[in-house]
Q: What sequence folds into this?
């Protein structure tokens, strides 16, 4: 029964959510694009090699080489949107900017409190990685692939058309190779956000309605999750809260509150890595 209720809640959220950011189809609030690939309608990903974000071999001319000293864990944080794409906006709050602030705070917290972790951001400024949305999203996961990341966490804020939705949600891949570990990571983060007083709306696996793998099974709708799965990389989208919810906005309005949320997410991430992370081992 609980499962059914959860599904109904998720479905209601999915239907009622609004994308305030036009073409960004990697947000949960992009309800208008259901059934379409968000990143490249002309070139829908297939199970073929084009769908794989392959890191260039290190040492090849022109290949970006990781600049960090290898440590035990590598976390890639992806502040969603940026550049010409501000994401959702409400009451003076702009998602792209808040996502970047949050990412910086998470990096600061983790690198200050743990010595065995490297944290890399996909963007450090208000920029996109590529003017083409599909290429941009692929490149964000590509940062994780190139740097041999353990996890990619794409940071977003949700928005709804009636401005009444609230709470946290995490989108994860449905692909067998990473779905269980993705769910664990998501639950660790969601639990910490719940402890801050945010409603836990759970995890969402979203199917493409028009693109299927070789076995006829729909692939992941969200590019961040899909490209992660293609590269055997845990890659999730965290919708920390709703940018247009008066209740949730208390977590966004001041730097202290934002930092508190960043610390909660940092602890969730590290709890996963230190207690539950087994992916890629053995
Ligand atoms: Zn977003």
A:
């Amino acid at each position: 029964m609980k499962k059914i209720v959860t599904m109904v809640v998720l479905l209601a959220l999915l239907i009622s959510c609004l994308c305030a950011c036009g073409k960004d189809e990697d947000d949960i609030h992009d309800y208008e694009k259901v059934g379409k690939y968000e990143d490249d309608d002309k070139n829908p990903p297939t199970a073929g090699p084009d769908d794989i974000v392959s890191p260039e071999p290190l040492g090849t001319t022109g290949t970006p080489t990781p600049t960090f000293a290898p440590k035990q864990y590598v976390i890639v944080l992806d502040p969603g949107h940026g550049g010409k794409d501000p994401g959702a906006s409400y009451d003076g709050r702009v998602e792209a900017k808040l996502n970047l602030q949050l990412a910086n705070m998470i990096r600061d917290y983790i690198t200050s409190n743990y010595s065995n972790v490297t944290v890399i951001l996909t963007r450090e400024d208000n920029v996109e990685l590529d003017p083409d949305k599909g290429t941009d999203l692929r490149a964000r996961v590509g940062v994780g692939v190139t740097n041999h990341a353990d996890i990619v966490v794409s940071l977003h804020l949700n928005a709804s058309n009636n401005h009444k939705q609230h709470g946290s949600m995490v989108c994860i891949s449905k692909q067998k190779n990473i779905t269980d570990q993705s769910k664990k990571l998501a639950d660790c983060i969601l639990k910490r956000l719940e402890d801050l007083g945010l409603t836990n709306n759970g995890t969402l696996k979203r199917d493409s309605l028009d693109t299927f793998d070789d076995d006829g099974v729909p692939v992941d709708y969200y590019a961040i999750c899909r490209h992660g799965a293609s590269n055997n990389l845990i890659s999730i989208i965290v919708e920390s809260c709703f940018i247009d919810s008066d209740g949730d906005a208390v977590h966004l309005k001041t730097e202290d509150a934002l930092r508190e949320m960043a610390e909660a997410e940092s602890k969730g991430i590290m709890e996963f890595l230190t207690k539950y992370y087994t992916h890629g081992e053995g």
